[in-house]
Amino acid sequence: MYEKKTVLTAYISVFLVVLMFSTTNVSASTYTVGVKAGDWAGYGNICVEYAANWPGLEQEPPETNMSWVSMEILDVQYNNVTIRGSTIYANGTEETEVIWGDLAIGEGKLNIAIIPSNLGTGDEIPAESYGLFFVIQPPPQGILNLFINGTTTRKYAGANREVNNINFSSPIILGNVTVGESNMSYYWDKNTGVLCEHSVSSTMAYGTELYINMSLLWRMTATNMWPAVFTVQDGYAFNVTMISNSTISDFDFSESQMYISFNVTGPAGKAGYCNVTIPNDLLQGNPWKIYVNSTDCTSLCSITGNDTHAFIYIPYTCSTNIIKIEGTSAIPEFPSALILPLFMILTMLAVNFAKKRIYQKPAH
Prior knowledge:
By secondary structure, the protein is mostly beta strands. The chain contains 2 helices and 27 strands. The strands form 6 sheets. It has a 6-stranded antiparallel β-sheet with strand order 7-6-5-4-2-15, with no helix packed on it. Strands 3-14-13-12-11-10 form a 6-stranded antiparallel β-sheet, with no helix packed on it. Strands 16-17-20-25-24 form a 5-stranded antiparallel β-sheet, with no helix packed on it.
C-alpha cells in the first residue's frame, strides 16, 4: 500500500510538469526566436478540478492551488532564451525560478513555455519529448514527437491572435500496467512562440474502486507583447488600446457621462499599472479625472497626448480594481473622419439640385 501511495504522490507532483524534453538532432538554422528581453506574459485565468477517493489523497494537492503564473524574458542569445518564472498560490506563497532553454534543440528547462516563432501546420516542435506522465515510468514506445496540428485565431490578453495548437493523448503507466490517460491541448502565439493556453485532463483508476481525476486549465490574460483592444460601437467604431500587467475585463464606455471604465485584476499586493491609449475623437479631457475604486488618483497618473490620441499611465496596487477615466467631451456630433465624406455628399446633392433647376427653367 505504501508503494502504491508513493507512486500516486509522484503522479500528483508531476501533474504540473508540462513535458520533459531531451535533445534531438535538428538544424538550428531552421528555427527563429520570436521573443526579446523585456517581454513578459501573465496567466490569470487558472482553473483546477480534482476528484479522488484514494485514501490520503482525497484533497486537491496544494501545488495545484495557483492564482497567478507569469514569465519574463530576461535574455535572448541566438536560440538560447532565459526567463524568470513566477507562481503565486492562493495562500499568498510565491515561488520564483530562473531557467533557460535552447529553442532549436529543446535542451534546458523551458519545456514548451516558448517554442520557435512562425511554425505552421505539420511542423515539428524541435525537441523530442516524453508524455506528461511518462516521467513516472517511460513507456515501451519511448519518445513522443510533437507536431503542430493547425493554426487558428483566438483571443488572448485582450487581442485576437493567430495561434498554433497541438492536441494529443498520453497513457499513464504504473509498472507495466496502463492505469489511465492524459489528454492535452496547447496554444502558442504564432508570431512570438509564447504559450497562450494549456489544458490537461487526466483520469486514473486502480482496480474497480480507486480513482484520481484531474483537470488543469490556464490562459494568458496579460502581456506587453501586444495591446489589449476594446472597440467602442456607438454608431462609430473607435479602438481603445491598453497594455497592463493585470487582467483587464468589463470594459465600458458612456457617451452621455463621458467616461470609460474597466476592471483590472492581479496578484494581491503587487504593483500594478495600465497604459491606456484613447482616440481624441472618442473622448477628450480638459482636464481628465482618473479614479481607482472611486478614489481620485489623477495626480498619480502620467497624462500626455498628441493630435489624435491621449496616453494615460495609471499605477495601482493589485487586487481587483475598478478604473474610471472621466473626460469633458465625448464623440462630437460629426467626427472629423466623417466631415470630408459628408461635405462631398452635400456638394454633389447641391450640384444635382442646381442642374435640375436649370433643366426645369421655363423658356421665355
